[in-house]
Amino acid sequence: MSAAARQLPGGPLINADRFRSIHQAEWERLDALITRMEKRSVRALGDEDLLALPGLYRTTLSSLSVARDTSLDRSLIIYLEQLCTRAYFQIYGVQAPVRRQLASFFAHAWPTAVRGLWRETLVSAVLMLLAATAAFLLVRSAPEWFYAIIAGDLASGRDPSASQEHLRATLYDSGDGMLVTFATYLFTHNSQVAIFAFALGFAFAVPTVLLILYNGLSLGAMFAVFQTQGLGINFTAWLMIHGTTELFAVAVAGAAGIRIGMAVAFPGRVMRMESAVLAGRQAGTAMAGVVLMLLVAGILEGIGRQTVTGDVARFIIGTAMLTGWIIYFYLWGGRRA
Amino acid sequence: MLAPRSLKRGFVTPEGVDLKLELGSAAARAAAFLIDALILMALLIAATLALIYLGSGPDVALTLWLVGFFFLRVGWFVVFEMGSRGGTPGKRLLGLRVVARDGARLTAAAVIARNAMREIEVFLPLSFLGTEAAEGTADRFLILFALIWSGTFLFFPLFNRDRLRVGDLVAGTWVVQTREARLVPEVLDSAVAGRRQFSDEALSLYGIYELHTLEDVLRGGRADSMATVACAIRAKAGIADDGDDPGFLADYYAALRTRLEAGLLTGQRRADKFS
Fold first, then answer.
1. Where among A43, A69, A91 does a domain terminate?
2. What is the domain extent for residue A36?
3. Which end of chain B is more exposed for a tag (fewer CB within 10 A), N or C?
4. A174 and A76 in one domain?
5. Residue A317 and residue A213 share a domain
6. What pLDDT does B3 receive?
7. Cα–Cα distance between A172 and A178 in angstroms, integer?
8. Minimum-distance CB partner of B13 among A31, A61, A75
9. Does the residue A337 lie in any domain?
10. Is there a contact between B100 and A195 if contact means CB atoms under 8 Å apart?
């Protein structure tokens, strides 16, 4: 080797120099490939580059080990460290293509996550139902309870003092445009409840349970108002067209929150932090699904409910949605792993 | 809890090499979030102005604005963090990256869980205060409560060793600092002949830490700092001043590094002058 001709009293310095000159081309090639992957994607690499990538990565990683143990050239070690870190995240941390990720989310991840939460979902559904029944009975026995349960602006005139005509109108008239309804929907009651039920779960699930109970209470109170005016069935139809999807979503969000809270409170044999992470991953997938369900509910509320005004049609749509979700989550989805 | 001495964390790849990741500091993360918030706000203002300019009715404008804001703030973080750079533009500017704590790939579920938590960490108290203020109903107690609430989440990263947000905690992620480093040439041209020779005592004064400091001084190339360092070394080693500070420092660096690297090969790593 020609570098040996430059042998000087300061031997190892020359070694470090030679180490660089032998491997520098590989490091620089890896650097260029990684930069291209970061800027665009893996697809920016040709076949030849793609085949070379793992080899280059391992060579550079071993260069880092060698440099750390034999060289005191700090700039070289820092360079290799950052290059290896970037390469690691591109090689091991890279996401599957969006289309495949979406496909596996719908075919597998989402239903599996929701199915895994079935106990908690059942609990939050039962809680909601119990609260609704309680509120219904309370408002039936003494209408003043209504004002204690539902805040004024949320009721928008739908309270015990309202006439039957007014209540009927709220069920069948499309006051605002579809878009307005849809947007206000996104920020109104139930979607907020869903997000907070999930996000507050880590406080040992207490706020989640309270939110779910409160959601049930307002539902029951509202039902009581319509029921006393003989509009019970009409209200149910009005609610069902989007409510089966929306309340299902709220129940799943509550379940996700409860799961996280329970994982933090009772971690079992794993560490508390680890337990929270495991629960958080599964709950996170279910939550992504909840957002989609809320979007579907928003479309049903904004468009479906404005155009479909027949009670029977509303019942059919609501029941079909519910059956669809149940089949998707618990019977069909994700069986093919 | 004690303040951490260092933000370096061991991170062993499947090949068995420790990459020694550096966690993003609280300051860098706050700055990254501020940049993102500013970009989001600028986009919102631009969109609002466009809506007004187009002369759409207040109902439609408000609707589009609300929907847009929702998708913007939810989508911004999720979409960028799922990308190949693992961070929003703000994070990229500061060299931050979201990474799964166990070294596995960052899943979409983790990113969503991480950012869903942001709703209660930032937007809940903000929007709450905003509405209260707009309606003029905010009393002192409510403001105090909202401040304590958001403060708890805001300063949460400062109270744990790994600088985890509540969202990071639940999603199993952390934020690491990446560095852009170019391969710079060796500080010395090793082919220079006729170096100064140093005695054993003169070379046993310093360890690796001092060697690296000396490397910085040589790379910096500032005459005054070179003079100070050269003067200190000469005084300690009892060497006469020959008036050539850069040459002296380069030769001393070469000799010290040769000696310390030879030590490495025999398993002696001298961290600094005290060891």
1. A91
2. 9-91
3. N
4. no
5. yes
6. 46
7. 14
8. A61
9. no
10. no
Tokens 């404008």 found at: B61
CB A265, CB A204: distance < 8 Å: yes
Closest CA to B107 of A328, A203, A295, A277: A277
Across the interface, of B17, B114, B124, the residue whose CB is closest to A65 is B17
Count of domains observed in chain A: 2
Top residue of A85, A176, A178, A275 to mutate, by most chain B CBs within 10 Å, is A85
Which residue in this structure is represented by tokens 């570098």?
A3
pLDDT of residue B63: 67
Q: How far is CA B150 from CA A202, B16, B34, B123, in A?
A: 16, 41, 16, 9
Question: Tokens standing for A309?
Answer: 């005004």
CB contacts of B14 in chain A (<8 Å) are: 92
What does the alpha-carbon distance between residue A105 and residue A117 come to, in Å, rounded to a whole number? Answer: 16
Interface predicted TM-score (ipTM): 0.79
Sign, CA dihedral A240-A243-A245-A248, equals negative
Nearest one of B8, B2, B3 to B174, comparing CA atoms: B8
Domain match, A73 and A129 both:
no
Per residue in B161-203, pLDDT (tens digit) is 888 888 888 788 889 888 777 887 777 765 565 677 888 888 8
Q: Break chain B into its structural domains and give their ranges.
A: 8-177, 200-265
What is the number of CB-based contacts under 8 A between chain A and chain B? 201
Q: Does A202 contact B166 at a Cβ distance shorter than 8 Å?
A: yes
Domain ends where: A91, A125, A145?
A91
Tokens encoding A108:
């597998």
Question: Among all chains, which residue has been given the structure tokens 């409910």?
Answer: A305
Same domain, A82 and A140: no
| C-beta atoms of B117 and A199 within 8 A | yes
Contacting residues of B for A73, CB less than 8 Å apart: 186-187, 215, 257
Taking CA–CA distances from B78, the nearest residue in chain A reads A288
Tally the residues of chain A. 337
Does A309 lie in the same domain as A164? yes
How do B173-177 and B8-9 pair as beta strands? unpaired
Q: How many Å apart are CA A170 and CA A16, to the nearest integer?
A: 81
Is residue A1 one of the residues assigned to a domain?
no
Q: Which of B104, B113, B195 sits opposite A284 (nearest CB)?
A: B113
> What pTM did the predictor assign?
0.71
* C-alpha–C-alpha distance, residues A200 and A211, integer Å: 10
Q: Which residues on chain A are in Cβ contact (under 8 Å) with B186?
A: 16-17, 20, 73, 76
Instruction: Check whether residue A235 and residue A156 sit in a common domain.
Output: yes
